[in-house]
Design a protein that fits this description.
0% strand
Length: 416
């Protein structure tokens, strides 16, 4: 039998009054870190090449370092968040974000340019992905999936390129970089100081006897990896993540291969991003009603059909609709994953599970990004890659349903 504190709320109880504030902190942190670090790159690329006298390929190494660095450090950061102050780690990510943009503003050194993106990679894990979602998972018992969906709405990443392009054209690259550094310094960092590590009643424990879980009431990394249900949840969510990354990166050349113009293909990509805003909220809401596992199963089932439709010679409007719906489902993977992990393994295990999932996803995304264009070069078609993606989703349906049948966490909590 698991112990519980006398004042702890049961599973699904009303949220603490401070939960909304924690949600706002998480929203600001997630949007500013991801919006600034990911949203500036394409706009600033030409100025970087001129200032540093480097090629586009060399400049793109920076973004590669950000993505790989974020993915590889995620499990370690997830473990640290379960043991150390979440507020301090969120603040650290804000400091790293500001430091990276100060470096970019004041240097023309290529090594320091690369260092800035390493800092961004750490900031992405700390304050862009794992940290904000962990804060929400800890503080929200009621409507946790919806809260995760709202916090992960990618609003800033849609606005930053437009605003930044205007600043660059009117004020220059230095002002643009310095402006982002100051935004991180005077908005992001103060916002993260408002975070509170744990709700007064604590979080739900891992569903094991005290001798079979960590001191903080969570599953250890080894215990998570030893459970088939954890792998099922991760792989089901990774199918959607891989789908989003694949289309987000290669949709323009894919559209051209289908006979659309570059402008039409770019428009489809914009539609996908815009409709994704709906998906984050919609599937977050569904996750609270169906459970995380069933929500991931629904997403995967629908995506099998949607990806299969891309094999047909559809007109522009139909392709835009299908890709938009894929984007909507892809955005639902994060709240579905968050709800599934916290339901099955306890809120106290969330940061570890979320961090491990990020690293597990990396090879799947890399294979998709390298494999799809390679297949096209050999066959002259993206059809084999589309079939492979649909097959991945078909497997994900079975995995998600299996995860949904696993034992849900009991109504127990860890001490605050």
């Amino acid at each position: 039998m698991l112990e519980a504190t006398a004042t702890a709320p049961p599973h699904g109880a009303k949220n603490h009054p401070l939960a909304v504030r924690m949600g706002l902190v998480a929203f600001v942190a997630q949007n500013l870190v991801i919006g600034l670090t990911m949203g500036h790159f394409g706009v600033m690329l030409a100025s970087v090449e001129r200032r540093m006298d480097i090629t586009t390929t060399q400049a793109s190494v920076g973004m590669l370092l950000l993505i790989v660095g974020s993915s590889l450090t995620a499990p370690f950061i997830g473990v640290a968040m379960a043991r150390r102050s979440l507020r301090q780690m969120l603040v650290a990510g804000g400091v790293l974000t500001a430091a990276g943009f100060y470096l970019l503003a004041f240097t023309a050194s290529f090594p320091l340019y690369l260092l800035a993106y390493l800092l961004f990679g750490l900031a992405m894990s700390l304050t862009g992905s794992i940290g904000p979602s962990t804060l929400v998972a800890r503080w929200f018992n009621h409507n946790r999936g919806l809260a995760l969906g709202l916090v992960n709405l990618p609003i800033a990443i849609a606005l930053v390129p437009l605003a930044l392009n205007w600043v660059v054209e009117t004020q220059g690259y230095f002002t643009a970089y310095l402006g982002m550094a100051l935004l991180a310094t005077f908005v992001l960092i103060p916002a993260t100081f408002l975070a509170i590590d744990h709700p007064p009643g604590g979080e739900m424990l891992a569903p094991e006897a005290s001798g079979q879980r960590a001191d903080d009431g969570s599953f250890t990394v080894g215990q998570l990896l030893a459970r088939p249900a954890f792998w099922a949840i991760c792989l089901a969510a990774i199918a959607s993540m891989t789908s989003s990354v694949l289309l987000g990166t290669l949709l323009v050349p894919m559209g051209i291969s289908w006979g659309f113009s570059r402008g039409e293909s770019a428009l489809i990509q914009s539609i996908m991003a815009a409709v994704g805003l709906i998906g984050s909220v919609l599937f977050g809401w569904l996750a609270d009603r169906l459970g995380g596992g069933r929500t991931l199963a629904l997403i995967a089932f629908n995506c099998v059909l949607l990806w299969a439709l891309l094999l047909l010679q559809l007109p522009f409007a139909a392709v835009a609709l299908v890709v938009g719906l894929i984007g909507m489902h892809g955005a639902g993977a994060i709240p579905g994953l968050g709800r599934a992990i916290s339901d099955a393994f306890g809120q106290a295990s969330f940061s570890r599970g979320f961090g491990i999932n990020t690293m597990i996803a990396l090879p799947f995304m890399a294979i998709a990004l390298v494999g799809a264009p390679s297949v096209y070069e050999v066959t002259g078609s993206y059809a084999p890659a589309i079939v492979a993606m649909a097959a991945f989703f078909a497997i994900a349906v079975a995995l998600a349903l299996y995860a949904a049948s696993a034992s849900r966490v009991r109504d127990q909590v860890s001490p605050a």
